[in-house]
Specification:
Length: about 325
């Protein structure tokens, strides 16, 4: 029976709880309204307090300014009194009245004018002649220094003009030489085509930029950036040797210049190095890992490791080895 009555009991309790929840929600809304009203009243009182504080602050500032003005007026009165006593030997109470019909502004202007005239007279300077002589000497010295500076500036400008003119002439001469070598070397390395350097951006060679235009065989003339990686590398080699041939040196070090090139272009590069070495008498030191380049050199230097952890420098004279091989061939034929 107790279990049978349990659902009815639970339903009654649930209904009672729902009623209590409704009452509690109503009380919460009433409390929320009261809280909102209290917060609004508090905000209104805060605004009133801030307004009162601002008014009090302004009143304090006004009082401070009034006190400062009062103190300043007292100081001005004391200062004027002292000036009157110093200049007229009278107190302000014993000053004579102003002339009849004279305005205060007219009197002040007259006083200011008389004071300026008196101050303009100044004191008698007994050393005026000596000071004039010293100033004349100083003026003559400064004038001479100014003339020297003007002449120096003009001379410096002429020197700069001469330097710029010589620099332009040398730059153009070097440009023509490098451009000629560049076009010739480009044609030799690519087996045809043409290339040239151009000054762009300004008519003055000293201010202009440099642009490389290349036309490999079978292609249209285009800027260096439009070429493939291998073509750019070979063009750069041509430009490098063009600058080198303009002012050759006895020794030239090349570090991995053949790395981005294929075997055919490496062969062209090696032939070019041999020709430059024969023409200019330059010794080339090539740092490379390419077998074709190493095979075309006169002497090889390398590092080998015959034992683990033990490195040894190795030097091979390929020219001497080739001559020994040529000598052994007739001997074998005779045998």
């Amino acid at each position: 029976m107790e279990l049978a009555d349990k659902p009815a009991t639970l339903a009654a309790d649930l209904e009672a709880l729902a009623d209590r929840l409704i009452d509690a929600e109503a009380e919460r809304r009433v409390a929320a309204d009261r809280l909102a009203a209290a917060e609004a009243a508090l905000a209104e009182r805060d605004r009133g307090l801030k307004a009162a504080e601002s008014a009090a602050s302004q009143a304090r500032e006004s009082r401070i300014r009034a006190g400062a003005a009062h103190e300043q007026s007292q100081q001005a009165t004391t200062h004027l009194t002292e000036r009157i006593r110093e200049r007229l030997a009278l107190s302000p109470q014993h000053l004579p009245p102003p002339p009849q019909g004279a305005a205060e502004g007219d009197l002040e202007q007259r006083l200011a004018r008389l004071q300026r005239e008196r101050e303009g007279l100044g004191t008698v300077n007994l050393l005026a002649d000596e000071e004039i002589t010293a100033l004349d000497d100083q003026l003559a010295t400064l004038t001479a220094e100014r003339d020297d500076l003007t002449a120096a500036i003009a001379k410096l400008r002429r020197g700069i003009g001469d330097l710029n003119r010589n620099a332009r002439e040398k730059l153009l001469a070097a440009f023509e030489s490098v451009n000629g070598h560049f076009g010739r070397l480009f044609t030799r390395l690519f087996g045809g085509g043409e290339a040239q350097l151009r000054l762009v951006g300004d008519d003055d060679p000293l201010e202009a930029g440099l642009e490389v235009f290349a036309c490999p065989p079978g292609k249209k003339p285009q800027a260096l950036t439009a070429l493939s990686g291998g073509e750019r590398a070979l063009t750069a080699v041509a430009l490098l040797f063009a600058a080198f041939l303009t002012n050759p040196a006895p020794i030239c070090v090349l570090d991995e210049v053949d790395a981005p090139l294929d075997d055919a272009n490496v062969d062209r590069l090696c032939r070019l190095i041999e020709e430059i070495a024969d023409e200019a008498g330059t010794r080339f030191l090539c740092i490379t890992h390419h077998r074709l380049t190493m095979a075309r050199m006169d002497r090889l230097f390398g590092v080998t490791m015959e034992e683990r952890g033990v490195s040894r420098l190795v030097s091979v004279d390929l020219r001497q080895a080739d001559s020994l091989r040529q000598m052994q061939l007739p001997l074998r034929a005779a045998e």
